[in-house]
Structure formats: structure tokens, C-alpha cells
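LAB NOTEBOOK - FOLDING QUEUE
OPERATOR: T.R.
BATCH SIZE: 2
PURPOSE: Compare the predicted C-alpha cell outputs for two unrelated chains run back to back under identical settings.
PRIORITY: normal
REVIEWER: second-year student, initials M.K.

ITEM 1
FIELD SEQUENCE / FIELD STRUCTURE:
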Amino acid sequence: MDARLSIIPLLVISIVTGIGITESYGHGLGSETMPPVTIVMYDGLGNEPFVVEGTLEVNSSTIYTDVDGEEKGIRQISINFFETFTYVESNEVKPIDNVTFQVDLIKSGNVIISETFQRDDGVLIMNLTPSDNEQVQVMERETFASFFGLASEQYNFEGKIFENGGLYEFKITVITINSYDNVLTDPVNYELGISIEETTRYDIDDVNYGTQSLGIITYFDQIIDFEYNNETKEIKFSFPFEWNQETIDQTTVIHEEILVPKTFGDLLVSKYVATLNGLELPESMVNIDDFSSDDRLVHIVVSQNELQEIFSNNQFNENLVLITVKPESDLPLSGVTENGQFKINLWWDDELRSGETSILYYDVLDTFLKDRPIAVSYDLKVFHDGKEIGAKSGTSSNSKTQSNSLEFFIPSDISGIIVLKFENLDESKVANLQIPLVVDRKDVSTSFEYQIPEWVKNNAGWWADGQIPDSAFVQGIQFLIKDGIVIVPVGESTAQNESSIPEWIKTNAGWWADGQIDDKTFATGIEYLIKIGLIVV
């Protein structure tokens, strides 16, 4: 007789976790391993109870696949319910058979998937595929598997909402174990959050370094606002966060990464200061990673204990985390060689100007020896548009009080970006570093000119007098901005619930048309319209 057919439905009389509750919570990581639960079952025949201690583990990953020439990231979620005690010698995990899961997947407060799944091996894999569909759809498993090369025993969903990473909330209930007939009278409930890495780029225009692509990698929730201040060099961004004790208890860590292009010399400083909701973060929470080739990574890591302290000592009016990061000082600049062995700090006393002799100072440090100065051979060259304008070879100083220097003349016909190339440190072909600098630096606060043609004032005057509607004015300005006729320095656009243009903008337009205010004041009003989302560029 098949053993499965002879099983008498079991009665679960208790479910106890390590802390004595039937619900477990987790929040904010790319994977979560929940506290063990003990399930005790009696067969009603007076036999010894059957005991299972189970652990739920949820992991996320992203599979990048080319679809019609476009790279798509499939978010793969794996849910695994297994026996807590494994075979230690082989590190083998013993699965719990015939598990029925009820899964609710919640994104931005909305339930986007609510399904029941039966898994013979206790492992559930869900593939979340971006598409143009506004509503989440279940895909045919065999079709999906053959197209993307994934196993057919996976459940596949597609929808536009899966284009975004950030925080995905799960409510998971274990309904049966060992047999699909064994319906637990007291199901095991889990609530947890899984953060799927999401990278967002923001192009900013710097008067000295040109267009630079800053980035944020969030491991918590989606970034909802981003700003860069050209004058203070401050990066500011925010994401949703409910400031209550339950959220703090569920949040193991908040981890954000800022991507700084290595072509953006002003931000390649040796130290940053950061704040969270206006509170300065300790230096230990801000870490620089220079080991990638294109971008510097600035890690902001706030642990649960630190979040608890912030929450206990402060009261916030908005349910969000607002992070700011800026250089502690303009100098020194710093970088790490390709092989990760040497760090170089670079500074100078006077602004670099064409037609003058400049002196650059630098220290060569050994990263393996806690940034201790080290004596190694090196080559240093200075380039402008690929042409060498300065050079030095030698052995660096290992003194903490005596730095290295390069004195060179900057020709009068050279301005803009020059590049310092440190090469062949300690005769290693992979111990190289480039740092960009600026000759004849432009003042950010006075360098921008608002280039608004005179004829645009006529339209503004007609609008202020009520001769054309708001929509015509908005469409006209939008066209002018997109075509580069009107140029205004704007931050990241953030749509708000505004139904009409504020009256003060119309008043400004009338004053501008009459010559009572200058171009900059009017352009600031246009910038505001972009900021609140009434004009989208």
C-alpha cells in the first residue's frame, strides 16, 4: 500500500518559535533566514508525537537576459522551508516535503500576487519578469522556461511593476507539511521584506567637469528623490521608511551605495560626511570603495542598533529616510591603484592656472599596511587632451612628515581638465591610478548664464494677461527646454499633486515681460514648475 494513502491526518497541537510566538518578522535584506519554528503533531492514536523544527529562508537574485535587443532583469525569489538541524558533516539541508505555501507579495503597499503553491520538496521559486503589462500576469511555465532557459518547475509572473527593485514585502503562511492532507490547525505565519538591488543614474552638469552620471544603488527601498548641489557638492536622496518600533525591529541594516564617476575629480575626496534625517552619521558608517574601474562606491551602512538609537532619541514627521553625503573638505583627493595595493592622497596650495608654475603634493600609502607611507618606485605624468605637459619618476617617501611633490609649468593655452597618471608603482604594471584636475577653475555660483531669447517674453506677457491658457504656456516652455532654447539648471523632477500653475509664477511672468525682474528670477520659477512635475523634461 502507498504510504501516502495510509497517513491519518495529523493534529497540530502547538507551534513554538525560539521566542515563543507563531509569527516571525524580517525586513530589508537581499535574503532572510527566519527564526526556527517547532511543530508538534499527534496522530490521535496515542503514539509519540511527531516533531519537526523548520526554518524558512527567502533569497533574491537578478538574472539579466537579452530580450529583443533589450537587457531585462528577471527578479528571482526562492522560498525554502527545511529542517533546522542539518547533517553537519556534509552541510546537507534536509527538505520538508509536501509543503503548501500561501504567498502574498506586496509592493508599495499593494498586493500584487496572492497565490497558493504546493511544493513536494519545500522549495518555491518565483520569477518576476518586467513587461509592459500594467497588471501582473501568470505566464505559462513551459513557454517561459524554454524561452529564458529556466527550469519548468518555477512559477513565473510578468508585469510592469517588476521593472523596479527596492523593497518587496512578503506574507508567507505554511499550511501543510509532510503530506498535503496534513493541514496545520495553527499555520506558521511569516512577514518579511526582501530588498532587490536597484541602481538609478542621475546625470548632472558640472561647470568644470561637464556631464557626470552619479548613481545610487539601494538595497532597501526605491529612491523617490535625488538632488545634487553644484556649489556645496552635496548629494541628497530619500526613500520610504516607516519610523515605528515594528519597522526598527524588522530592519537588520540600511545599506545604500553612491556611485561617483572617477572622471569627476571634485568628488574623489579622501573623506565624506553624511547625515540621516539631519543627524550626522559616525565616520564608521561611511566607507569608500575604490576597487571598481569606472566608479568609486561610497557605502552608507546603518545597523539596527544605530537605527534604534536614532529612533529612540528623535521624532520624525515624515515616513522616509533622507540621506545627505558631501566632501568633508575639498582636499586631499584620493584614489587606489588598479591592483588595490597603493592609495594616493593628492593636494595643492594654490589654484591651478594656465601660464603659471604649479606644485602638486602627494603621499603614496600601502593599503595592506593600514595606509602607512611606503617607499616605492613610480612614474608620474600629467596630460592635457592626450598631450604630456609634465612628468616625474622617482621613489616615494615613507615619512609621515615629508610628502612628495611635482613642480611643473602649465602652458598659457591650456585650461580645463588635466589628468594625473601614476604608473608602475613598485614596478607593477597593474599599479596605476588616474586623477582628473581642473586648470582655471570656473566659479559654479556665477558661471551659468540663462539663455532666454527676447521673443519668449512676449508669450509670457500674453499668458500673464490671460490671453493664452496655462496648458499653452506649459507646452511652449516644455518645448523650449527640450530643444535647448531655454536653459535652466534643474535638479531631479519630482511630480506632486498640483492641479494648476501657482499664481505667483504668472505674476513673475508678467513682471519679467515688463522688464521688472531679470532672466534668472523668471528661470527660477520655471525650475520650480519642473521640480513639482508640472513641466516634465
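ITEM 2
FIELD SEQUENCE / FIELD STRUCTURE:
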Amino acid sequence: MWRERAGRPGPERGDEAPAPYDGHMPDEPQGQQGPGRPGGPTGRSGAGWPRWTIWVLVALVAASLVIPSLLRSDDRTEFTFSELFEQVETGQVEEVTFNNASGSFNGTLKSGEEFKGTGPTELSDTNEQALKEAGVEFDYTRPSSNWFIELIPLLLPITLLIGFIFWMQRRATAGMGNIMSIGRSKAKTYTTERPKTTFADVAGYEGVKTEIKEVVDFLKKPEQFAAIGARIPKGVLLVGPPGTGKTLIARAVAGEAGVPFLSVTGSDFMEMFVGVGASRVRDLFQTARKMGRAIIFVDEIDSIGRKRGAGLGGGHDEREQTLNQMLAEMDGFEATEGIVMMAATNRPDILDPALLRPGRFDRQVVVPLPEVSERSAILDVHCRDKRIGPDVNLETMARGTPGMSGADLSNLVNEAALHAVRRGSQEIAAEDFEAARDRVLMGQRRESVAMSDAEKEMTAYHEGGHALLAAVLEHADTLHKVTILPTGMALGVTQTLPEERHSYRQNYIEDTLCMTLGGRMAEELIYGVTSTGAANDLQRATEMARKMVREWGMSSRLGPMAFGAQGQVFLGEDLMHTREYSDETARVIDEEVERILREQEDRAKALLTEYSTVHELVARSLLEHETISGDYVRDLVTQGGPSGDGSGDGARPQPSAPTKNEPAPATFREGRPPSSDL
């Protein structure tokens, strides 16, 4: 457990939920697209012509009009109408043709040279007489008009408009999907192109894999189970904290299943249109029925499987209709043989009871936080492609990370690799894992924070109070190290080594409370006043003491009674919630919480007074070295002893650095381990 001294009375550093555990595996190939889904980026918009077809047609029409005029070359001599008849009078013209429609003329001179020109549309009698006297052969022509050419100026704008509308419609179809197929399922179907993840890639969790393998084996060899009358579970619900590998296990099922595997997330069923969710559920199960035997996996099923009637929306909202349809498909009037439903959630408490009953989800498989051996196997998986130094012992690292999920361990290995690169190393050493563990648990060290000498001294006495009590209390967690370097949102941190417990005794909780309040009592003893740095300590201590009274029956005044937990999940349940005890009992609960806190506060004050000399030495060592190890503090306690008892010679031992090649177990954060609410 680690204690932090807040830098200001604002929000304390919370505990973020780990990211979903996706495992250290090769990239998952894209499965086949479900029905009604647009294809990938192939340059085509669904079925039909490519999108660029309309632009090619427009370019061809423009080219047919422009290119001929560019390619046509005309090297004929151009005459005016007067020059033409000057040539006629001199006898140079052989023949000439007049266009009555445009007034143009062209012809040939006696020398063989061609000419052209423009004149009146009709020749006068005088001009005709002159041509006849000169012996010039002349003729009139009126070319017939091309109706297609005349229609082009009218058809071209209409064609462009129709093409633009057609192009916009195709784009809308590609973006939204066909409006008529909006109710089709978005599930990805894996048949031949399966993910490369297998059960061998899931480290640990042998019991979980055994239960999941039974379902896969039943679908592969149903006759083996049918011989003794065994019936396949219709549904398997994976339950566990975030980051424990529920989705990874589902990917392993998809990689090893001998039947089609349909994967979908709970949010894929929801849409802005009414009735779409129920329609997609129907389409999903219809698709699975056509495949004969299949596995349907719904990730984050709590997004659609929440309790009906909770909240102010009544029973007519879209989410509840989607849930109703799923309940009917899983175990309704029509039988669905050969279809196994798998789902994953980290909130089983909010799921509808009708969804959890046998016949729908027959089997609930708990995926807990990994134990020591499982953490070692997970670390080994994530270190396969890393260059690890010879001083790194993954088993020791596994013992030093209790309460961490698979996602936490993946992040730990990656942070260690980044730290090794940052310090210019070619491999990941034990010190990189130690720095990464501190980074994950306590946050990034804030080098830019410049504390005054008075603030640094108060922080040293505050953290020294935590460290001293952790060293002298019999049932408290073992002290690992203490620092006054600003880290995360804290100005100082005291880190302890929790054992891997699954239940907690009252004496352990009381010693933990005493240590938690040690920093505040140290400030009061030294300065006569307290500061805002103990805000986080008070919050944790109050929460723990209230649970002792209300939930764990550790109050002799109230006896063995549990009064329930506060905080309902839904607003509707909160409105209908009635308190199960009287106002007098509530007053007694508050008094008992106050009594427990004050008793541990007085106890911490007495111990700090008894070991005041050691407390002073610890604070001065922190001011000098900024970070000291737990062994150093224990040496001070052993050599210094209680003040005034004559034990110890007061000699000051040399500080020893925290061990780096054997990182100590990390503190659990709130919610870890899952068997306790500490």
C-alpha cells in the first residue's frame, strides 16, 4: 500500500481502470464482412460501377468535342471576297464553291494552290457573270445540319446533372449503407480466416480455458457428448475485472473453433433509429442458424443487458426492446440448437436477471486477477519479443506485482522498455522494471515542481510518520521505500509491500488505519497544526472505517450486522431505495466510525511520541537523500529504539538504496484484490 501527501486540497490522484487486455499477440486478421456491410477500400462503392466512372464519361464527351478541332490543320490561303474576284479577272481561279448557309467559299487556283474565304451568302448577277466570262467552274452548296451536334448543347448540362445526382446517391449509399439494410447485423464472421490467437497464447487461467474448451469440443464433436445425454450450454458469460483477458479468451475461441464464429460488441446493436437494435439481433441469430452450428460472441454485453425498468425511462426505450429480442432469441418459443452464446462483461451486477438464468447463460466463468504463477506466465508472454537483461527475474517480478491484471503487466513491460531506451540501454534491466513499476503505481515524477524548504521539510516529517509506523506496527504491510520527490499528484510517497491476501483480519486493518493517519499526526506533533497534505489519507481512512462498521461487523457496539453498501447503479433504483436502518442507527454508525478513527489517531500519536528520535532521523535522512529504503528505516528503528528507553547508541546507519534486482511487491489500488473492498 502506498500513502501519498497531496500537493493541494484539490482532487486527489484517483485510480484509473486498466485498459482492456488485448494480449501480446500478432495482429488479428480482418474477418469476412457480414451481410449488408460495405466492402473495404477497394475503390468500389458496394456492387456496381467504380465511383470514377462518371468522371471518365464526362472526360470522353469533352474530348470528342475539343480534340477534333485541335487536330484539324488548315494551310489554305485565305482570300477576301474582293481578292477572289481580282484573281478571277486575272484568270488565276480554276474552280470555286460557295456555301449558301454560311457565306464561306473555297476553291483551287490554276497553279494548284487551294484557298478559302468568306463572302455574302448569295452572289449577285454581276458576280456570276464575271465567273462565267472567266471560265471558272463554280457551284453552290448547302450542307445538311447534324442533329446530334445540335443536341449536344442541350443534352450535356442534363447529363452532367444526372451524373452528379447519381454520384451523390452512390456516396450516400457507401457512407450509410443501404437504408433498407440498416437493421442488418454488424457482426464479423470468422470461418476460414481466423485470428491467429489460440489457447496456448492465453497464459495461466487453466480452469477458465477448460470450461471454454468444453464448449468448443462439443461443437466439434457433438456425438461424444450426446452419447451420454450431455446437453451443450446455451450461453457462457465471462465475468472479471477490466484487463484480465476476457476478450483475449474469446479471440482464442475464434482461433480454435471448428465452427463459424460471429463477433459483435454490445454498442453495435444501438442506433439512432427506433427498432434497429431488435432487428439486428434477429438478423444476427438468423445468420447463425443458416450456418448450422456457430458461436456468437457479444463483447461488453452490459451496454444492452442492463436491468429493465431501471431509471426514469420505463420499459419502452430502445435498449430494453433490444434486450427483449435477445432474450427471445436465446431461449424463446423457437429452439436454437447448435448456437452457443458467449459474452463478456466486468459489471455482472447490473445485468438483467432474465439474461443470467439457466437456459440463456447456463455457465458463468469468472476470469479473476492472476495469481503469482499466472503473472509469471503473462510476463513471459509479453517479454517474448523484448531484449531482457540477465539480471531480470520474471518470477521475482511476478511476486512484486500482486493485484495487477494482464493489461497492467503488459503496460509494465512496455514502460520498462521505454525507460531502457530513455537511458540509452540496449536491453531491459531490473532497474527499468523497478522504475516502470513506480511509474505505473505512483505516476510520473514531476521534475518541474520546485518546493520551498518549508514545504519540503513538512513533507519529510509527513512521510517519515507513515514510514516509521509501517516499520514498528506488527501487522502492517512491510515498508519498501519512502520518497519526498513529487510524483504524480503527490508531493511524497510511502510505498509498502502487501502480501497476497484474500481476506483481511481486523488487526491488519487497524494497523493500516494507524499508518494511514501517521502523516497527519506527525505534522501535528512537529508543527502543532495540520495541512491539506493529509486529505487523501483522511479520505481513505474514513472509507475503510465506515466499511468496518457497516459491512464487516467490526463494531462491538452494533454487533454482527451488515447495513448494506451505499451507491446504487441506476437513478431509478436510487429513487426507490429505502434505508434499511433507523436514524438512531445511522447516528450510532457515525459515532462508531469516529471512535475507530480517533482511537487509531491517538495510537499513531503515541507511537510517534515514543519513537520521536527515530522519526527525527528519518525526516532528516529524507531531506538529505530524498529517497530511502525500507531497510534503512528499519535499521534506524532497531538502533534508535523508543525515545528514553536507553536502547541503542543513537548511531546513525548509512542509508542503503532500494534493492533494484528484486523489485518488491507493489501496493494494491482500490478494488484490488477483488475478494476485498479494502
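REVIEWER COMMENT (ITEM 2): The chain has four domains: 2-14+450-640, 74-144, 188-366, 372-442.
FOLLOW-UP: none requested
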